[in-house]
Amino acid sequence: MKPLLKSAIIVIPKKVYNESVERSKGLGREDAYEIESYVNKRRIEIKEASEKTTKEYEEMFNIEGGEKESLALASEFKLPMLCDDKRGMNAAKVLNINIISSIAMVKALYNKKRIDKKTALNSLDELERYGWYKKDLIENMKEEIKNVKTNITKDTQNSF
Known about the structure:
- The chain has about 160 residues and is mainly alpha-helical.
- The protein contains ten helices and four strands, in the order αβααβααβαβαααα.
- The protein has two domains: about 1-100, 3-Layer(aba) Sandwich (Rossmann fold), CATH 3.40.50.1010; about 105-155.
- Helices cover about 65% and strands about 10% of the residues.
- The chain has a two-stranded parallel sheet with strand order 1-2. A two-stranded parallel sheet has the order 3-4.
- Helix 6 (about 85-95) links the parallel strand 3 (about 80) and strand 4.
- Helix 2 (about 15-25) packs across helix 3 (about 30-40), helix 2 (about 15-25) runs antiparallel to helix 5 and helix 7 runs antiparallel to helix 8 (about 115-130).
- The chain is globular and about 45 Å long.
């Protein structure tokens, strides 16, 4: 997240903040304090989507929580969306919202030389530790990064 925040401000919905900071601090997760510090430094903005849009997306796509609010914010503010939830990704595609997964973000930052190989591989290790992705998917991306010579693909170039 640090390399991305050097040149961009990230917008998150209140629900995502509550999930990733408030609840995670209670569980002793270090990243919760890091996210909170970025909010305090105004590198992460907390916004609320309209209740009408969030309700509509909840009913339309049968999603809730942070994904529902992230979709509504991305749609209302015409922003790309970082998403690792399969249902959220499918809904974003239907709504023509540009999406990128955490794994693809790591690769894009590496390809654009905003992070080095070691940081990219460490980031993938963290994603593996959090358990969002299948181990073989992470291993394949690690191999790609180990073997790539910073080629930017059309997919990653247009992702953010």
